[in-house]
Design goal:
81 residues, 2 helices, 4 strands
Length: 81
Amino acid sequence: MKEGIHPNYREVIFQDISADFSFLTRSTIETKETITWEDGKEYPLVKIEISSKTHPFFTGQQKIVDSGGRVDRFKKRYGKK
């Protein structure tokens, strides 16, 4: 690999600000804030608004709405004649 052309790939903490949830992963994102993690080391901190802890798809709160009877219209249009 060429030197000096790749971004700094390091461990970063992502913190969901809407829930008390944080996780440690690796990223190239730049940030000015830092936080001390459970292992006692200090890592860069990125605050996010939504994560797997609060997203409706992952929490089971997502609702699928059939607006206007799309399935019925499809069956009527392409169903057996």
